[in-house]
Design brief:
The structure holds two protein chains of two kinds. By secondary structure, chain A is mainly alpha-helical. Chain A has 24 helices and two strands. A two-stranded antiparallel ribbon of chain A has the order 1-2. By secondary structure, chain B is an all-alpha fold. The longest helix of chain B is centred in the C-terminal third of the chain and has 29 residues, at 58-86. The termini of chain B are far apart. The chains are: A mainly alpha, B mainly alpha. The interface between A and B is small, with 11 and 12 residues.
């Protein structure tokens, strides 16, 4: 039953993509919208069906549909792997994806590239589902590259803007670095284990020495892919720039789904990471450092989407931290709740941006409660959820990660402390954003007439807001236990103690935001000057872009220029022309032999032919001369 | 009574020599061409004869190859001759010595 249903999850968005890409220009807009959103909705229904079957005790599926390549022991099947982990992923991708598609119907309604947009979005959903459902590394990489491609296309969707094209190119280059890592990881796996499918891989991974060089190298190479895709340090700089894409793209690809592919990868390969503790520790450290790094940058930005982008990086840092210390279920739990509230925040931000005629600077916004009530309240719910307000979704999932880190020894404990501080920073930057952009109510002279978005845009917000509130009560860890094993039970005392601690930290963050950005904006200015260089450092994102520019981009350009100006004309052309000149020069001597008479040539030819015959005959022994052996 | 192989080879050699000598001494391009054809067909005769003698098809295959090459070569050669004729130059191979320095 599952084996017939599973392919339809993939086929629905693929069909939507093909129809919209091929016929979108001639179809009416209404049809384009129905096909675009409907195909994802159908995929969602199939995904729910798969979930129900797993819940009612069906065995996880590993079904081979056809064999793509078969060459001696190199075998690439097309098989789908539906277990609890991939089922959760496809539910979120299609569910949240469907809401975002519905939202896009309203958000993109005036865009001339309407059908192109939905075609790309469907392509993305298809590639992402392929990434998740694939049962072997090769198809995983195909999906992995596919999401990179559709991300590139959608970031550069408004290709008449130079900045969008540059951002798209940057994202593509960064992601390609990751793709190369993935491909090399697959090479190494095949070289050492002669398998590419998950089942064979998981069965044979223990043949490698635990913590040995091979398994560590494989996991680190996979991590390169994960880091690039999930915008973690040091390959993170593309994500803030990716905000050049339309807002639904940011919500779907750069918040809810694609950027969490790295987390999925580590969770999917958890048997490998369990076998390579050093690589797993690297994952955790990268996650923890990125979490606080991005959160600090988020405190100083003024572009509403960029703040959310840094917030996404920071939250994915949490997930990396979780899967790095072996709390896989906690990481996936946070992935789910994050998909709810971050998609919500992005789409609400999209409504605000539209209301302000594509101005994204939060300092120009304010007092949105009257004009955009639904957007205002749902954004508030999202902000509370991400900040860890008690009993909301973000509270549960974030606490689980912090608790897992704090209860571990050594470095991981300190990563837990970092995560706790980050929780405070999260509350600060989110409420800073909220107070500045949404609640500048002390500015009484507000004569702007802001218009709330269409119902097609606000209803998905409300649904996601419900998810951001109650998502924490979904027993994800329990559901995932067949994949990751049972989580350690935590005593009520420890639970409440830590919850109190994290709420306290979040409350501190909230209070500072309230004081600086709602009560006493003058104090914010004072503190900005007082923090001087630190503020500059943070505001310029630690100058990482400038650093990469100096270290990689400019030397690369200089090298290219050197090759073009010096090597190309002098060395390469020089060699080619030199050879030609040489023969021209030599030919001048040989030309003197030419008589121009056919008879002379024929004589030479005849003489040569007789010579050849004589030599051959001599070799073969027909002549009284001895040549060679 | 089968004809012995050497008689074919002898005939082939005689034809080839006639072609070679004609090629060297005649000056009319058309005749020179016919001499070339004579040489090629002398070789063909040897190929086919030896093919039969050795009970192998290799020689026949080669003969076909030679016929193909000869056809291509005649096309190019006749084209050159026609061009020379159109240019109004005398039909004498010894006068066509543009390659000389």
């Amino acid at each position: 039953m599952m084996d017939t249903l599973a392919p339809f999850v993939l086929i629905a968005p693929l069909a939507g993509f093909l129809v919209n890409a091929l016929f979108g220009r001639v179809l009416p807009r209404r049809a384009v919208a129905w096909i675009g959103a409907g195909s994802v909705g159908i995929a969602f229904i199939f995904a729910v069906n798969l979930l129900l079957q797993l819940l009612t005790g069906a065995q996880p599926l590993d079904q081979t549909y056809f064999t793509w390549w078969q060459s001696s022991d190199f075998n690439v099947p097309f098989n789908l792997y539906v277990d609890q982990l991939s089922s959760l992923m496809i539910l979120v991708i299609t569910g949240v994806g469907f809401l975002i598609h519905v939202y896009s119907i309203g958000y993109m309604r005036e865009d001339p590239g309407y059908s192109r947009f939905f075609a790309y979005m469907n392509l993305f959903v298809f590639a992402m589902l392929l990434l998740v459902l694939s049962g072997n590394l090769l198809w995983l990489i195909i999906g992995w590259a596919g999401v990179g491609l559709s991300s590139y296309l959608l970031i550069g969707f408004w290709f008449e803007r130079t900045s969008a094209v540059l951002a798209a190119r940057k994202a593509f280059v960064m992601n390609t670095i990751g793709d190369v890592g993935m491909v090399f990881a697959a090479f190494l796996i095949f070289l050492n284990l002669r398998v590419l499918d998950y089942r064979g891989l998981f069965a044979r991974v223990h043949e490698l020495p635990k913590g040995g060089a091979v398994i560590t190298a494989i996991c680190l190479l996979l991590l390169v892919g994960a880091v690039a895709k999930s915008a973690q340090l040091p390959l993170h700089t593309w994500l803030p720039d990716a905000m050049e894409g339309p807002t639904p793209v940011s919500a779907l690809i750069h918040a809810a789904t694609m950027v969490t592919a790295g987390v999925y990868l580590v969770a999917r390969m958890h048997l490998l990471y369990d076998w390579a503790p050093a690589a797993a520790a690297t994952v955790a450290v990268i996650g923890g450092v990125t979490a606080i790094f991005a959160a600090t940058i988020g405190t100083s930005q003024v572009d509403i989407k960029r703040i959310l982008a840094y917030s996404t990086m920071s939250q994915i840092g949490y997930m990396f931290l979780a899967v790095g210390i072996g709390a896989y279920a906690a990481g996936m739990f946070h992935f789910m709740t994050h998909a709810f509230f971050k998609a919500l925040l992005f789409m609400a931000a999209g409504n605000v941006i539209h209301a302000f005629h594509d101005d994204q600077d939060i300092r120009h916004m304010g007092n949105l409660r009257a004009g955009l009530p639904i957007t205002f309240w749902t954004f508030l719910v999202g902000t509370l959820s991400i900040s860890g307000f008690p009993l909301l979704a973000g509270f549960f999932s974030k606490d689980e990660i912090i608790r897992a880190a704090l209860s571990a020894p050594g470095t991981e404990f300190w990563l837990g402390v970092i995560a706790l501080i980050t929780a405070g920073l999260t509350a600060y930057y989110m409420f800073r954003l909220f107070f500045i952009a949404f609640g500048w109510e002390w500015l009484s002279h507000d004569d702007r007439h802001l218009h709330e978005a269409l119902p097609v845009q606000t209803i998905p917000l409300v649904i996601l807001a419900v998810g951001a509130v109650v998502g924490g009560y979904i027993p994800v860890a329990n559901f995932l236990s067949p994949v990751f094993g049972h989580a350690v039970e935590v005593g009520t005392g420890a639970f409440i103690g830590l919850a109190a601690l994290s709420v306290l930290v979040a409350l501190i963050g909230f209070s500072i935001a309230y004081l600086l950005h709602a009560r006493r904006p003058d104090l914010a200015v004072v503190w900005r000057t007082r923090l001087g260089p630190i503020h500059t450092l943070v505001e310029h994102k630690y100058f990482i872009d400038e650093l990469y520019d100096r270290v990689f981009v400019r030397p690369g350009l200089a090298l290219a220029r050197f090759l073009n100006d010096i090597v190309e004309p002098r060395v390469i052309d020089g060699a080619v022309n030199g050879i030609a000149d040489f023969f021209l020069l030599e030919a001048r001597e040989f030309r003197l032999i030419q008589t121009g008479r056919v008879g002379t040539y024929a004589l030479w030819t005849l003489g040569g032919a007789i010579g050849v015959v004589l030599v051959v005959a001599a070799f073969l022994g027909y002549l009284p001369v001895r040549l060679g052996g | 009574m089968p004809v012995p192989a050497y008689s074919f080879l002898l005939l082939s050699g005689v034809l080839f020599t006639m072609g070679a000598v004609g090629f060297l001494v005649r000056r009319n391009p058309l005749v020179v061409f016919m001499c070339i054809e004579l040489m090629l067909n002398a070789v063909n005769l040897a190929f086919v004869a030896m093919s039969r003698y050795l009970n192998s098809l290799d020689g026949v295959v080669f003969a076909f190859l030679v016929i193909t090459v000869a056809a291509a070569e005649v096309v190019v050669g006749i084209a050159i001759i026609v061009q020379v004729y159109r240019a109004g130059r005398p039909m004498d191979v010894d006068d066509l010595d543009l390659m000389k320095e």
